[in-house]
Design goal:
Blueprint (H helix, E strand, L loop, with lengths): L7 E5 L12 E3 L7 E3 L14 E3 H8 L9 E6 L12 E5 L2 E2 L3 E3 L5 H11 L2 H8 L9 H5 L6 H6 L1 H4 L2 H13 L6 H6 L12 H18 L4 H9 L2 H11 L3 H19 L7 H5 L1
Parallel strand pairs: 1-7
Antiparallel strand pairs: 1-4, 2-3, 5-6, 5-8
Helix pairs in contact: 2-7, 7-9, 9-12, 10-12
Length: 279
């Protein structure tokens, strides 16, 4: 008689993830603080969960909602404060089991999830949530009332980026395509970025800065207000100055923002050095 073996799936808890990184940390014990930052970003690297869930249980829970894709889950961390380094921490998680520590966004397809996570993890969106957060967790009702750019807003900016949605999706593909658990999701984006995507810190950093500058622009935030909003992230500023002697993130976002404005003024689509790398 053949014995049926149950397949167990890792349970992704909120503290295991960071922005665009479901492999930020893994557990080394059963305590809440028994967690270790993960530095191995090779394509087949995994992080160890604290708990495992039977596959049938995970599928039963997932089956209670309607999903636009089964290649990944988009979640943002429930535990957050407006005094943290970043308040909105969103990640694509492998399709399977996610704990209460993540609030999941169900319904959109893979490309729509990419447009959402790019907004969730941007500085302007983060700043908006901080104005309404007075407790160390994100109320789902509060989050649901935050402004999100509709799909047609991306089409309106095509003269700047030469296909705005595709421009954003390519950068999200770079940020999510380095772990083999998300290869199916990266392919579902139907961009010209094919997994596995090497984890190159500088490339990832520049992708994120361009996304930040783009959303500052698309949300209609003036240059002076961009400067003000960036100064409201003191931990980011302190780390930048410690590492580089200047608030590099703010300086580079403003530089990119100016280049995007110049593209509007001259009628020439914005193009960065990243374009050749992402082609």
């Amino acid at each position: 008689m053949t014995q049926q073996v149950e397949r167990m799936l890792p349970l992704y808890e909120g503290k295991m993830g960071w922005q665009y990184d479901h492999r930020a940390a893994g557990f080394v014990g059963l305590g809440d603080t028994d967690i270790l930052h993960n530095t191995d970003k090779s394509d087949d690297a995994r992080v160890l969960p604290r708990y495992w869930v039977r596959e049938e249980v995970a599928h039963d829970r997932l089956g209670r909602r309607r999903w636009g894709t089964e290649t990944a889950l988009l979640g943002f961390r429930r535990v957050a404060r407006n005094t943290d380094e970043r308040t909105v921490i969103a990640s694509l998680l492998p399709w399977g089991a996610a704990s209460y520590g993540w609030i999941l966004s169900a319904g959109p397809d893979a490309q729509a999830l990419a447009l959402l996570i790019a907004q969730y993890n941007s500085y302007p969106f983060d700043y908006m949530l901080r104005q309404f957060l007075s407790q160390p967790s994100v109320p789902q009702g509060t989050f649901s009332q935050l402004p999100i750019l509709p799909r047609e807003a991306f089409d309106e900016m095509d003269d700047v980026f030469g296909g705005t949605a595709e421009w954003i999706i390519r950068r999200v593909a770079v940020l999510t395509g380095s772990g083999n658990e998300l290869h199916a999701y990266t392919r579902a984006l139907e961009s010209n970025i094919e997994p596995p995507v090497p984890w190159v810190a500088d490339t990832r950093y520049r992708c994120r800065l361009e996304l930040d500058a783009a959303f500052f622009y698309m949300f209609g935030i003036s240059r002076d207000d961009v400067d003000y909003i960036m100064e409201s992230f003191p931990i980011v500023k302190r780390k930048d100055i410690a590492a580089h002697g200047t608030f590099r993130s703010k300086d580079m976002i403003l530089e990119i923002y100016d280049a995007m404005q110049a593209a509007i003024d001259t009628g020439t689509p914005y193009r960065s050095a990243l374009e050749e790398e992402l082609a």
